[in-house]
Every structure is written in C-alpha cells, then in structure tokens.
Amino acid sequence: MASEREDFSLSGPLHLTTLDWTNDNHRRSVAACLVQGVYILERDRQLQRYESQALAPPWWEFFHFQLLRQLKDDADFSIFGAIYEFKPPASNCNLSTAGTPRYVIAFRGTLTKQDSFTRDLELDLHLIRNGLHQTSRFEIAMQAVRNMVASVGNSNVWLAGHSLGSAMAMLAGKTMAKAGVLLEAFLFNPPFLSAPIERIKDKKVKHGLRIAGSVITAGLALAVNVKKNQHNTRSATEDPFVALAAWVPRLFVNPADHICSEYVGYFEHRKKMEEIGAGGIERLATKHSLGGLFMNAMGKESEPLHLIASANLTVNATPSRDFKQAHGIHQWWKSDLHLQSKFYTYK
Q1: Enclosing H/E stretch for 105
Q2: Does the structure show a pLDDT above 50 at 235?
Q3: Which of 307, 341, 325, 329 is nearest to 110 (CA)?
Q4: Strand 157-162 and strand 184-188: pairing?
Q5: Beta carbons of 166 and 158 less than 8 angstroms apart
Q6: Across-strand partners of 313?
C-alpha cells in the first residue's frame, strides 16, 4: 500500500503553482521534488505500480519536467537516478527563463526496502571507506553526467541528490570541477563522515576539540605531503583542492541530522581559525581527514568525498521531531522553514 509521503497530491508542494526560477526557495523545492521522484520511481518498480497506478510522475510533471532516462544499478537493477528535461508549456514562452535548468540529473539515497536495501547498504559502506568512486553505480552516474554535459553544455545541467544520492552528486560535481566544468548542484543532507562534534552543546569544548583536530590533522598532512613530494615529480603548487574553489555547490543540512550536521562546524571553524590567526593551519587541515591520511600513509590513495573547498550552505533551523524528519527529503520543499544561508569560499 502506498504511503501518504509518496503521493504528490498529499505531501508535495502544491502551493508552487507559479515558479520563479530566480527564487532560491523555489529552486530548492523543485530540486528536492525531482530527487523524491527518483525514490518513488524505484518504489513504483518494486511494487509494480505502472501507468495509471504509478505515483512518481507528478513529482516532476507538476513543474513541467519530463523523464528523459532512468539510471539503473547494474547489480540489482534498481533505479538510483533519473535525467529530467525541462519542458515548459507554450503558454509560458513569454516568461523569463533566467535560472532555469534544461536538464536535471537526480540521485536518490538509501531505501530501506528489501529489493534495494542490500545494494544500497553496500554503497553506503563504500562511501564510509572513501571508495564510492570505485563502484559501478558511480561509473554509470558519472558517464551519464559526462554525456549530458558534452551534449548540452554545463550551464544547462543541474545535479541533485539526497543522502547517499547527494554523495553521488557531490563526487560527480567534484570530478567535473577538477576538469574545469562547474555544475549547479543541490545536495540535500550530504554525508559528512566525522565524529559528531557539532552535537556537543558546550561551545568552548566544541571549539577546543576542533582546534586540536585541526592541529593534529595539519601536522600529519604536512608529514605525509613531505614524504609524498620526495617521490613525486609533480609541481607542489598543483593543488587539486584549490581547483575546486570555483565550484560552489548548494548544501542543505539539518543540525539535528548527525549524518550531515558536521558541515556546519566544518565551514564555521575555518572562519574562526582565520579570526584567531591560525588560518594557515586550517587551510591545510580542511583539505584532509585523519582517516584519509592514515590510508595515504599505508600507500593507499584516499580522497575524502565530504571535504569541499567552497559552498553555499543552507541550514534548516526549524525544530525536527526526530532523526527521520531531520534527515528526510520532505523537509526541503516546506514553505514555513526557518533557514539560515551562508556563502563560504576557500582562500
């Protein structure tokens, strides 16, 4: 039986009858709904809901998108992504198209349903080990992104994802950014793999732990980099993290969601370290994680997915009932959210 949350007429943003593509709230809501469309596509497949019984189409058709292609995992054949094309009606031809995407490539997160959970959990484990880039699912996603950009240009393509799907979108966006291709990205509840320092209430303790972590991480990074440069002929000035600074994905996090809440402290800590004159330490520390450094020390290349140079960070400060609500995609198209947005860039 279908859940109320799967039915657009019961839980979708029906108030968005007229879209203003220059309005950040509208853009966020549409991107979140397109991601929800991928979740429901997979649920329709699992429950064999086809044609008139399918619940997925309203999640994109309401905003004048068409489903161009489904992205399917080659292991369990589950639908993990979708490519949408924006097709406004002829009656809208006189309206401004500023800020509109032509195509959106969206990725769902983990589904706790029997038909897809085993494979999704396997991907989650790869993510924890910084190995998402080595999976066949990501290869399928990356090829779809490259093909679409090659066909229509980067300015016409958006990326969107939630949870595991936002990690897929982030990795695709980082990969393209390193090649000089900057894509608009909407990343909902993106995983940040770290100790949950942000959940500590005492600000002094929290700040002290972050400073100690930065000093330790920067010291290890310096030692590892010195060793690496002794065996590397590449110019030390070639810093892939700096190349990412021009890419500014939109991150949407909830402080009550321990999976993504560390992004709040990650960016705010940079600012505080600059203010106390320790910006040099933090510029080195922010590019590394302790886990990644240990992997590198053992001779295994490991680039933490969650570390990014710049971002437009939006925090949902609206109280959440529980973790499920704080981590859910549904929160991001509500009209009564208390949002706080800040722009961060790596210098």
Answers
A1: strand 103-107
A2: no
A3: 329
A4: parallel
A5: no
A6: 251, 342
What is the residue-wise DSSP string for 254-313?
A: -TT-TTTTHHHHHHHHHHHHHHTT-HHHHHHHTT--HHHHHHHHTT-----TT--S-EEE
Three-state secondary-structure class, residue 30:
helix
What does the pLDDT look like over 250-266, one tens digit per residue?
Answer: 999 999 999 999 898 88
First to last CA, the chain: 52
State pLDDT tens for residues 322-340.
999 999 999 999 999 999 9
Question: What is the residue type of 90?
Answer: A
Confidence of residue 126 (pLDDT cuts 50, 70, 90): very high
| Residue 307, token pair as written in the block | 């570390």
Q: How far out from the chain centre does Cα 263 lie? A: 11
In angstroms, the CA 101 to CA 104 distance is 7
Contact 82/141 with Cβ under 8 angstroms? no
Question: Strand 250-253 and strand 339-344: pairing?
Answer: unpaired
CA angle 116, 120, 123 (to 5 degrees): 155
Global pTM?
0.86
* Max Cα-Cα span within the chain: 64
Torsion, Cα of 27, 32, 35, 39 (10° steps)? -160
Say how many C-beta atoms besides its own lie within 10 A of residue 154's C-beta: 16
- Per-residue pLDDT of 145-171, as tens digits, reads 999 999 999 999 999 999 999 999 999
Q: Is 14 helix (H, G, I), strand (E, B) or coil?
A: coil
Contact 168, 191 (CB under 8 A): no
Strands 250-253 and 65-72 turn out to be unpaired
Tokens of 171: 């990795």
Task: Look up residue 167 and give its two tokens.
Answer: 């990690």
Do 81 and 67 form a contact (C-beta atoms < 8 A)?
no
- DSSP assignments along 115-148, one per residue: HHHHHHHHHHHHHHTT-GGGSHHHHHHHHHHHHH
Helix (H, G, I), strand (E, B) or coil at 154: helix
DSSP classification of residue 209:
H
From CA 257, how far away is CA 191, in angstroms rounded? 10
